[in-house]
């Protein structure tokens, strides 16, 4: 594996993603946890750029950093007094063992080619553009039904969230 | 920037430098140029802003340091650098120091996709418009972080107020942004500008421009939406604990954001570098873009200094009950009209290669739709205004009767 | 060029970090953050498989489109989940899922 822009990018984003992820689960302070989550998801957006999916990268930043991070910080602030947002752990050792075991199983499945070899090279040319995604989302042979379902789901989630979180008195 | 980079790269290789190193160095120069332009402008912008504000308020403004006070910004910079750099003892040190950087970076990074001329731009991303929205949302997170990391109740309350404002006004901003994207059929900034060769998009949809203008004014936290600071009424807001250059970075980010929005509006709605003789030289093209951006920027300064501040509930009601429905209706009507006209064959399918004559029918129809919407809105507002006046009159009558009754 | 299995390995690691977060935290918001990590690990996998498989025709967009749908679901999930957490907190003064046990017989 030669050292070029893609491999360097891959390692930088790996550090961001995994480091951020470890930060999320180890920090006791929930607000810092949110920031770590954003670091991690920023790394994932970097992967999307490396995998030539810039649209997904932009949407990832927009949805997670622009919306979900703000939602989570609001939830953190509203459910804890500001000075005491540290949290405890339970079942630390069993959960660590369980997730480590899961990781080893997954790693075994990934590195040992049970289902045949993996491609090591990317597909040569990507003809896909954002326009193609847009067309596919509203194409009868494409993803129009999931797209409509997702729209309905988002509307329902929005109305539901507003209704649930509304204060009874006001 | 590309030709500059390759030219520089070639020069370095010829003079005996390593090829990879030369490429890296020339890329670095390109990056420095793209980020350097906004950094230098902000120094001038602060002077312009203070001078314009002073003239509107019948003052002279900075006039002591240098000719016309031009050196005032440098003096302020030195003053800010010389101030004590305070970090509150109970603050979250890392996040507290990172927040101003992220806030400033979120504005500078927008310039990556800004095309200065047809040939000089940072990157022409396929998703340029979406990139701009995504990067701008980093600034919201920076403000939230600053408010929380200061460990100050006023800072946190200020951050909540601001974040509510920013998140709300992002909705009409994006809906208004979708109109030029839809008309150009592309999210690339370069394509959006090139698609306006026939007609500027502001003529096709003045309403989208108005919505974009109002929401970007709110996004930068300027009057009448200046709840971020509201220094004459509230404790300063999310940046209350910041001092010295860290405060200066929030300050510079805000000033630069206003100008950036001016340039973006010039690109999205006013044809960017399009103007007489723009194809003769990149310099003329750049001058047109700068001129348009500056005019829009000056109008925002004018607005800032003449309009009174709104209450938070008025701001929210204006957004959710007026701007959001309006922007959605505008988008739906315009997209339906565009599709129908394309099917009838009177609208060009590809704006990029359409001339003035090609887009004339589209322009007329879209402008009429927009004017009809404005007329309808004005009708509603007139009715509302009458009701409000009648109510106020009735109240006043009652008060007057009560007063005269008490006098008897 | 980075081989496919490295992307998969990173995604697996991220997924397991998320699993650890979900299992070991008591705060519902922290559990939700773990779930977000797991969703993103899946997204990396989907996009990586899409990119490394033979994408010859424009409509072979499964990985890409699925990722977009996962993002939509994540947004909806976060909104509803946090609304529920805030309501539970308002009624019971607690954000620990085990303590919301009114329905227990």
Low-confidence stretches of chain C are none
What is the strand content of chain C? under 5%
Approximate helicity band of chain B: over 70%
- Average pLDDT taken over every residue of chain C: 85
Pair with the biggest interface: A-C, 88 and 72 residues
Q: Sheet bearing the most strands of chain C, described?
A: none
The main β sheet of chain B shows up as:
none
Distance between the termini of chain C: 58 Å
Q: What Rg of chain C is obtained from the alpha carbons, in whole angstroms?
A: 18 Å
Q: Which quaternary structure do these chains form? A: heterotrimer
Secondary-structure element sequence of chain C? HHH
Q: If you average the pLDDT of chain B, what whole number results? A: 86
Poorly predicted runs of chain B are none
| Category by helix and strand content of chain C | mainly alpha
Structure description:
The complex is a heterotrimer of chains A (170), B (408) and C (105). In chain A, 71% of the residues lie in helices and 0% in strands. Chain A is mostly helical and 170 residues long. Chain A has two domains: 1-86 and 107-123, Four Helix Bundle (Hemerythrin (Met), subunit A); 129-170. The longest helix of chain A has 26 residues, at 54-79. Chain A is globular. Chain A starts with a helix and ends in a 5-residue tail after the last helix. The model of chain A has no long low-confidence stretch (mean pLDDT 84). By secondary structure, chain B is mainly α. Chain B folds into two domains: 1-82, no CATH class; 83-402, no CATH class. The model of chain B has no long low-confidence stretch (mean pLDDT 86). Chain C is elongated. Chain C starts with a helix and ends in a 13-residue tail after the last helix. Chain C has 105 residues and is mostly helical. The model of chain C has no long low-confidence stretch (mean pLDDT 85).
Compact overview of the structure:
The complex is a heterotrimer of chains A (170), B (408) and C (105). Chain A is mostly helical. Chain A has helices spanning 5-26, 30-50, 54-79, 92-111, 130-138, 144-165.
Task: Provide key terms for this protein.
heterotrimer, B: 408 residues, mainly alpha, 13 helices, C: 105 residues, 3 helices, 0% strand
């Amino acid at each position: 594996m030669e050292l070029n822009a893609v491999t360097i990018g891959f390692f930088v984003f790996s550090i961001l993603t995994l480091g951020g992820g470890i930060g999320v689960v180890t920090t006791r302070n929930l607000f810092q946890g949110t920031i770590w989550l954003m670091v991690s998801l920023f790394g994932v957006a970097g992967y999307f750029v490396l995998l030539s999916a810039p649209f997904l990268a932009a949407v990832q930043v927009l949805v997670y950093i622009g919306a979900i991070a703000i939602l989570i910080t609001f939830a953190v602030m509203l459910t804890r007094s500001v000075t005491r947002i540290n949290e405890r752990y339970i079942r630390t050792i069993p959960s660590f063992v369980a997730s480590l075991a899961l990781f080893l199983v997954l790693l075994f499945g990934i590195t040992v080619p049970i289902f045949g070899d993996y491609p090591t090279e990317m597909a040569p040319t990507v003809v896909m553009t954002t326009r193609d995604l847009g067309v596919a989302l509203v194409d009868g042979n494409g993803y129009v039904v999931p797209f409509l379902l997702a729209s309905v789901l988002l509307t329902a989630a929005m109305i539901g969230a507003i209704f649930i979180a509304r204060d009874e008195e006001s | 920037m590309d030709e500059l980079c390759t030219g520089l790269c070639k020069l370095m290789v010829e003079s005996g430098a390593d090829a990879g190193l030369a490429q890296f160095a020339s890329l670095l120069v390109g990056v420095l140029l793209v980020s350097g332009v906004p950094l230098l402008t902000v120094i001038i912008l602060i002077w312009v802003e203070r001078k314009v504000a002073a003239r509107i308020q019948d003052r002279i403004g900075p006039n002591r340091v240098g000719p016309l006070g031009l050196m005032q910004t440098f003096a302020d910079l030195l003053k800010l650098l010389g101030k004590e750099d305070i970090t509150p003892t109970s603050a979250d040190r890392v996040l507290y120091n990172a927040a101003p950087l992220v806030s400033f970076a979120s504005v500078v990074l927008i310039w990556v996709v800004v095309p200065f001329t047809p040939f000089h731009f940072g990157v022409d991303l396929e998703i340029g418009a979406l990139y701009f929205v995504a990067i701008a949302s980093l600034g919201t997170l920076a403000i939230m972080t600053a408010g929380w990391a200061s460990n100050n109740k006023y800072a946190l309350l200020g951050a909540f107020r601001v974040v509510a404002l920013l998140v709300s006004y992002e909705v009409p901003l994006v809906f208004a942004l979708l109109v030029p994207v839809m008309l150009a059929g592309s999210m690339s900034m370069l394509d959006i500008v090139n698609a306006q060769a026939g007609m500027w998009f502001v003529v096709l949809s003045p309403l989208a421009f108005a919505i974009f203008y109002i929401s970007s004014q709110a996004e930068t936290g300027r009057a009448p939406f200046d709840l971020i600071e509201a220094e004459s009424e509230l404790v300063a807001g999310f940046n209350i604990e910041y001092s010295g250059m860290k405060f200066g970075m929030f300050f510079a980010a805000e000033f630069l954001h206003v100008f950036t929005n001016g340039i973006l509006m010039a690109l999205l709605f006013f044809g960017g570098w399009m103007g007489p003789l723009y194809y003769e030289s990149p310099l003329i093209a750049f001058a047109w873009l700068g001129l348009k951006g500056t005019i829009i920027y000056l109008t925002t300064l004018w607005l800032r200094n003449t309009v009174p501040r709104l209450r938070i509930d008025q701001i929210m009601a204006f957004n959710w009950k007026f701007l959001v429905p309006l922007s959605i209706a505008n988008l739906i009507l315009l997209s339906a009209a565009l599709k129908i006209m394309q099917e009838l064959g009177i609208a060009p399918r590809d704006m990029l290669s359409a001339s003035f004559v090609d887009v004339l029918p589209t322009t007329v129809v879209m402008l009429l739709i927009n004017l009809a919407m404005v007329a309808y809105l004005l009708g509603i507002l007139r009715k509302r205004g009458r009701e409000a006046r009648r109510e106020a009159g009735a109240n006043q009558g009652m008060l007057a009767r009560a007063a005269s009754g008490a006098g008897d | 060029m980075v081989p496919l299995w490295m992307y998969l390995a990173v995604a697996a690691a991220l997924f397991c970090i998320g699993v650890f977060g979900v299992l070991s935290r008591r705060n519902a918001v922290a559990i939700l953050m773990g779930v977000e990590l797991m969703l993103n690990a899946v997204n990396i996998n989907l996009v990586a498989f899409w990119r490394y498989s033979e994408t010859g025709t424009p409509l072979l967009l499964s990985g890409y489109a699925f990722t977009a749908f996962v993002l939509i679901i994540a947004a909806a999930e976060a909104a509803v989940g946090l609304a529920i957490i805030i309501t539970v907190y308002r009624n019971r003064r607690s954000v620990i899922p085990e303590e919301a046990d009114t329905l227990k017989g």
